[in-house]
Design a protein that fits this description.
Order of helices and strands: HEHHEHHHEHEEEEEEHHHHHEEEHEEEH
Helix content: 25-40%
Number of helices: 14
Bound molecules: delta-meso nitroheme
Structural class: alpha+beta
Shape: globular
Number of strands: 15
Length: 484
Amino acid sequence: MVQQMLPRLDLNEIQGDLLIGMQKNAQLFIFFKITETAAFKARTKEFVVSRMTSARIARERDRRVYERRSRQEAKTEAWLGLNLGFTKEGLTQLLGPGRPRLDPAFERGADHSETIAALNDPPPSKWVRDFLSDRIDGVFLIAGPDSWFVSYHANGLRERFGSAIKIVYSEMGTTRPGAHYGHEHFGYLDGISQPGIRGLTRVSDPVHHPNEGLPGQDLLWPGEFVFGYPGQDPEDPYDEGRPPEMAVPWMRNGSYMVFRRLEQKVPEFRRFVREKAARLGMDPELLGARMFGRWKSGAPLELAPLRDNAALGADEDRNNDFEFGDDPFQRKCPYAAHIRKVYPRDDTSNEAEVQRHRIIRAGIPFGPEVETGETTTRHSRGLMFVCYQTSIERQFEFIQRRYSNNPDFVGGKTRPGGGAVTPGFDPIIGQAPDNGARQMDEPYPNYPAGNRRTTLEMPGQFVVLTAAGYFFVPSITALRTVLT
Ligand code: N7H
C-alpha cells in the first residue's frame, strides 16, 4: 500500500479517548442534565472547547510516556484529559426537537425495552438507582494521574457550569494498584488487543506485513470508528470501503460511545473457578484461562495452551500474533472463550465480515480491591466499559448479541470424531434470556489430543450490567459551532 492512499485523519478535531485513549490512572464519569441550555452552551464554548483533549494531544502524550518508559524513568505527568459526549436527549436539548435523527440504536437508547430485550440485559429497575434518577443529556470524561487530581479539576468544571447543569450521577474509575496495574478485577491483563487504524497506527513490518500494526494487529479503515473516512469493504478485509453514512455533515470526526457499568462478582468468580476445576480435575488457573482465552499475564492460549508464560504475555510483539483457524477442534482455546467470541479473527468463513464488527475499547476498572475475608461481594466493583464505533448496532450490539449471547456461535464446527459442536455462551459477558443459566463447551482441554467431552455449567452471572448509555462524541469544531 502506498503512503498517499492512506486517509489523513484530522487529529485536532477528533476527541482523544476514541482513537488513542486518554492517559488515565483515574477517570471520572460525570453524567449530567442540561438545566439551562443557553448557559450550558456559553460555558462549553468558554471553558470546555479549548481544554478538550484531542487525538493529537493524546498521541503526543502517549509518545512522551513511551519515551520515558524506554529510558526507564518512573515519573508520571499530571496531564488532564477532558472529553464530552451527548445522549439523544442531550442533542435534542441543544438543537431542538426538529434535530436530525442519527443511528437507530442511538435514537433508541441503551435503556429502551427493545435494546434490553435484544441484548438480554437486566432491566433498568435493577440498575444503580441514582443513574436513573433524572434525564441524562451528556457525560464528561475527566482523566488524570490519580483520583485526587481528577476530582480537583472536576470541581473546577462543576463550579464553571454552576446551575447550567445538574449532575445526575458521577463515578470514578481507577486502575488497580501496584502489580495489578493494567489488570482488571478478575486478575487478567486487559487492553492488549485493539484494532489498528490505517493512517494512524505504525506498521511495524511494512515489507512482510503491510496490513498489520503490531504483529497480529489487523489494520482497519478509520471509518469503522470515526465518521468522515473510508470504512471496511464488506467483501475484502483489506480494501477500502465506503465511508459510513452521516445524517448531517457535522457528524464528521465524531463517533458513538457505548458505556456499560459492569459489576464483577470477584469472590464468587474465584470460588466458582476453584470448585469447578477441582471437579474437572484440572488447574484452576487453566480453567480461568480457558474462560478468557488468555492467561492472567495476557499470554494467549493459542500460543501457550497449557501453562502461563509471563514473558509472552508482556511482549507486545508476540502476545497478539495468533489466529484461531489453525485450532479447528478448540484444543488450545475454547470456541466460547471471551476473546474468541468477541473477535473470532479467521475462525468464520468470512474474515472481511468479522472485521465489520470491531470496536475500540477505552474502559477503566472501578471499585475497591477485594478485602481479606470478603467471600461474597460486599463492595461494588467492576469495569466502566467504554467502546467507540460508527454503528452501535453493527459493532457493539452485534458482538454482545450475535456472538457472546449466542450459544451457537461460532457455527459449523465439528468434533474430532465427527458430530456438531454447540460452543455455548461467552462465560465472561454472555447473557441468557431472563438471566437464565449458561453453558460453555470444553472447559477441559483436549490438548494436544483426546476427545473428553466436558461442559461448564454457569448458574449465575459473574458480570452484571448495572447502568448503560449511548452517546455521540462530536468533533471539537461541532462542539464549538453547531452544538453550542
Ligand atoms: Fe472484554 N477482562 O478484563 O477480563 N476483555 N471484557 N469485553 N474484550 C478482553 O485482548 C473483560 C467486554 C472485548 O481483539 C480481554 O486486550 C471483562 C465487553 C474485545 O482479541 C480481557 C469485561 C465487550 C476484546 C477482557 C469485558 C468486550 C476484549 C483480553 C466485563 C464487548 C479484544 C485482553 C467486565 C461487547 C479481543 C485484550 C481481541 C478483550 C476482559 C467486557 C469486548 C482480559 C472483565 C462488554 C473486542
